[in-house]
Amino acid sequence: QVQLAESGGRLVQAGGSLRLSCVASRSIFSINAMCWYRQVPGKQRELVAAITGGGTTSYADSVKGRFTISRDNAKNTVYLQMNSLKPEDTGVYYCNAQLAYSYWGQGTQVTVSS
Fold first, then answer.
1. Measured between alpha carbons, how far apart are the two ends of the chain, in Å?
2. How does 62-97 read in b/e, with b if 16+ C-beta sit within 10 Å?
3. Cβ partners under 8 Å of residue 35, min gap 6
4. DSSP class of 43
5. Does pLDDT of 32 surpass 90?
6. Cβ–Cβ contacts within 10 Å for residue 53, how many?
7. Quick check: helix, strand or coil at residue 30?
């Protein structure tokens, strides 16, 4: 079991940058994959970025080249660096840990104004 706490979301202008953090309540060293999802009202939650225990990363096409996911095992933390933000990046961003079950944080709101 693991508890996740996201932070870093706020209002930002288009073209700006944000870094989201997800702190886990236990070591993430052995967690299969850590992911960031986002959700907007009326739409399904979508996978934005993922990083495996071995450090392999993957991204949604809409964020490739702009977002970077990373992990600091010593701090039990996963980051999402978001650059060149667009209004369509607006949403609630959730951290996810994939163990035998899937665990979610409470989410952090990102709003990108045009």
1. 40
2. ebeeebbbebeeeebbbbbebeebeeebbbbbbbbb
3. 47, 48, 49, 50, 51, 95, 96, 97, 98
4. S
5. no
6. 14
7. coil
Q: Which of 98, 89, 83, 87 is nearest to 28 (CA)?
A: 98
| Residue of 8, 1, 26, 20 whose CA lies nearest to 78 | 20
Q: How far apart are CA 36 and CA 17, in angstroms?
A: 16
User: What span, in angstroms and rounded, lies between the C-alpha atoms of 56 and 7?
Assistant: 23
pLDDT(62) > 90: yes
Backbone angles phi and psi of 75, in degrees to 5: -105, 5
Handedness of CA 103, 63, 114, 12 (dihedral sign): positive
Give the amino acid at 72. Answer: D
Cβ-contact 108, 92 below 8 angstroms: yes
Task: Say if CB 106 and CB 95 are below 8 A apart.
Answer: no
Sort strands 18-24 and 4-7 into parallel, antiparallel or unpaired. Answer: antiparallel
pLDDT digits (tens, 9 = 90+) for 3-31: 999 999 999 999 999 999 999 999 988 88
* pLDDT exceeds 90 at position 39: yes
